[in-house]
């Protein structure tokens, strides 16, 4: 299923191409997200952000040793010396989901601070990856194929190393269920980018006046490989809310076609929404 045409820009074309690369670049994808929110972010601005990551990596000691030593070294640099950490108020700011702003402010959501940890540590040769714990993104240090024994660090708390009990309590607080070792699996680059976009959509959903932000976040998510068909429905609803009834109705028709394959009754309901959207053109 293909999305109806959305606004196309060189940045979106670059985002789509990078998302389909054999080894997608996490920092570049996050910076390209930033171009949607910040018209002032251009090629030189993105290059400057990537140079900042390079400079930070150069400040790390050469090969500090075991995963725990790596975690401590990165926390000392980023959390203590550079002051990267989070605050509850950061959840209320769109800037907290934009990598270039997080690099500038030293503040952000757990997942964006984790991107900084990952990109800096990776450049220095650390065995590092993201860990998408329910409700809170953290960083793992250690071999990817031995994630059950990884050392977890919480960038939102300045890189504090989490004990097994800390991780268990974090998961229990978010889900009410015990930690499953599968939750410690390394998160892929596109999984991280998808979660960043979901965070932006959640921020905008709580602020109806920012439906335009929700729209571009959905449209970027549609550029990711193997996206969910449901995103077409979400895009249609946003288009209708923003007054683009014609395009919204067309998107609803497209979603209804896909839905009819396994749920004709639900497809009819969506077709009814498309008719209602077209009626608003009169």
UniProtKB/TrEMBL annotation:
Q: What is this protein called?
A: Transglutaminase family protein
- Spell out the PANTHER family in the cross-references: F-BOX ONLY PROTEIN 21, SI:DKEY-261L7.2
Q: For the Protein SirB1 N-terminal domain, which residue ranges apply? A: 52-198
Q: What protein family does this chain belong to?
A: Belongs to the UPF0162 family.
Q: Which domain of life is it from?
A: Bacteria
Q: What are the transmembrane regions?
A: none
Q: Give the species this sequence originates from.
A: Streptomyces flavofungini
Show the InterPro entries listed in the entry: SirB1_N
